[in-house]
Design a protein that fits this description.
The chain is mostly helical. It is built from four helices and no strands. It has a single domain, classed as de novo design (two linked rop proteins) (Up-down Bundle), CATH 1.20.1440. The two termini are 31 Å apart.
Amino acid sequence: MNGQPKEKIDKHVLIRRSGDFAHRCVKLCNAMPENWLGRHIRSQLMRCATSVAANYRAACIAQSKPSFIAKLGIVVEEADEACYWIEFIVDENLMTAQQCSELLSEAKELTSIFAASQKTARSRQNMK
């Protein structure tokens, strides 16, 4: 790192990014081969990618701090699962690494952001 403080990412930015991520995953899924494996992975990736966006929105309107933390946990798990399926797509040669690289990078970055947010929320809750 360059010693600069991390930039705080606004929840509205993350709502937009997670929604864009879901849409991009849907487009990737629509471009996959129409065979048994392609259909199976399409279903798995579409489910977890859209869950990232939907559950983050739900976290943003959580009724309590424990609910927020729990919903963020779901978001982290689903974002990480999306990473897995995108990597699997490449490993099975359903699409090239080049076709998936930007989406995989975004999946990894979102996973890291949401995991850090959950960690921060937990530490703040424990301070009370």
